[in-house]
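Retry 2 of 3 after timeout on previous attempt. Resubmitting structure tokens to design endpoint.
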């Protein structure tokens, strides 16, 4: 498409957007009595209007049924999570049996590493991207130490080439091949939180398996953002949070994927709890853990129903949208438009004030662009915030902007970019 930097063009794109009605399903924070321009769905997705109603409904069941709510009502709590699975399975490219929702993300990463990081003295290394989200770094380090290994030796980080910011798939594969005999686990994010780079998960999985390692992904920035095919890619496990692109509320419930090929592997360790017990026998309260077949067998504790209700409010909107395919198509357009506008502003300024470090190739990114400001970065970010443009800041000099196809418009993107230009002139 040929883009233009003017308001008319942006408004025309919005009129032609078949998903534009979905914007009204969300609540926008206010700035000076107007809806703010929210480009921060990579950090905290907006609240669906319906979330209050979904929560209220569960409060009503609690009021009217009390403990009977586990078995009674339209959607008894005991199996409430099952309603979430069809839409999630579509977003993640899995069967319903291969996923469940539970806990929060870092906890799930630990639980999955209990099962899928099984180092011995020959194979004990974990290969991951340099600059992974800090929580993942801490989780991995502490797992390595827990097994008696030294993180300095056991964690191999794949770094960008000198002078570059993002990774080459080839370099990831080479790192795996170079450590093939010693690698127990390859653990990558789906999309790096800082650069917005979407990794080739299929290629990484294939290389990891060829080396004899297991392969898992943290999809915090990928779930609900880009199309995923976890089952077909043959990933061993994955986890994600629901409060970023999945709009399910601050601290919202996390999800996990376990490939079906691991369902009946008795050698897998797991930290068990009664919520992962065989459903048909859970309430016999017997000795000896007998897991439910599938990802649900990794569940530990009683379902947090209110969190699940918030999750359902958002997933129902994903269903209305027709799933990830039309959303990603619009997301690619919005992101490309933002990229075009930023480059056009650089052209107008006669210098590259804003350097986009997210890959240009749309198969290597989702909705987020990470932008490094050549000067006055913090002042520019503050100017945006003062003018009702909400992005987010990552030290030392990156502004992350994410136009989300569920609720952002071309006009949002246009106005944010114009504000960037004004920020430069005023700083
Ligand atoms: C957002 C994010 C987290 C946050 O984990 P919580 O346990 O939900 O606090 C972890 N890892 C990655 C890659 C993230 O992007």
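Retry 2 succeeded. Sequence:
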């Amino acid at each position: 498409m040929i883009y233009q930097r003017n308001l008319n063009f942006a408004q025309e794109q919005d009129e032609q957007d078949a998903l534009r009605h979905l914007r009204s399903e969300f609540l926008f924070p206010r700035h000076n009595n107007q809806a703010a321009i929210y480009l921060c769905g990579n950090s905290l997705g907006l609240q669906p209007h319906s979330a209050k109603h979904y929560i209220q409904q569960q409060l009503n069941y609690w009021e009217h049924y009390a403990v009977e709510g586990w078995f009674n009502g339209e959607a008894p709590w005991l199996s409430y999570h099952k309603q979430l699975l069809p839409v999630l399975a579509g977003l993640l490219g899995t069967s319903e049996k291969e996923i469940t929702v539970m806990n929060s993300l870092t906890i799930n990463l630990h639980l999955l590493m209990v099962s899928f990081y099984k180092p011995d003295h020959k194979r004990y290394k974990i290969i991951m991207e340099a600059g992974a989200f800090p929580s993942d770094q801490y989780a991995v380090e502490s797992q390595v130490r827990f097994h008696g290994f030294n993180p300095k030796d056991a964690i191999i980080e794949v770094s960008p080439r000198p002078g570059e910011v993002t990774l080459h798939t080839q370099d990831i594969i080479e790192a795996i091949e170079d450590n093939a005999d010693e690698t127990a686990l390859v653990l990558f994010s789906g999309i790096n939180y800082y650069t917005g780079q979407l990794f080739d998960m299929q290629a990484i999985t294939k290389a990891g398996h060829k080396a004899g390692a297991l392969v898992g992904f943290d999809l915090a920035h990928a779930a609900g953002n880009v199309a995923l095919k976890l089952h077909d890619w043959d990933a061993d496990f994955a986890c994600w949070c629901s409060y970023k692109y999945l709009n399910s509320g601050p601290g919202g419930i996390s999800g996990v994927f376990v490939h079906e090929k691991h369902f009946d592997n008795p050698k897998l360790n797991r930290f068990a709890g009664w919520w992962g017990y065989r459903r048909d026998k859970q309430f016999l309260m017997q000795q000896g853990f007998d897991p439910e077949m599938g990802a649900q067998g990794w569940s530990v504790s009683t379902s947090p129903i209110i969190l699940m209700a918030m999750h359902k409010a958002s997933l129902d909107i994903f269903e209305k949208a027709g799933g990830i395919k039309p959303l990603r198509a619009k997301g690619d357009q919005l992101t490309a438009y933002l990229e075009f506008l930023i480059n056009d502003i650089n052209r107008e300024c006669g210098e590259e004030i804003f350097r986009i470090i997210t890959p240009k190739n749309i198969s290597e990114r989702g909705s987020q662009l990470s932008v490094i400001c050549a000067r006055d970065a913090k002042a520019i970010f503050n100017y945006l915030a003062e003018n009702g443009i909400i992005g987010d800041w990552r030290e030392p000099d990156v502004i992350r902007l994410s136009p989300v196809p569920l609720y952002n418009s071309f006009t949002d993107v246009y106005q944010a970019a114009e504000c960037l230009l004004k920020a430069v002139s005023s700083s």
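Attempt log closed. The longest strand covers residues 183-189.
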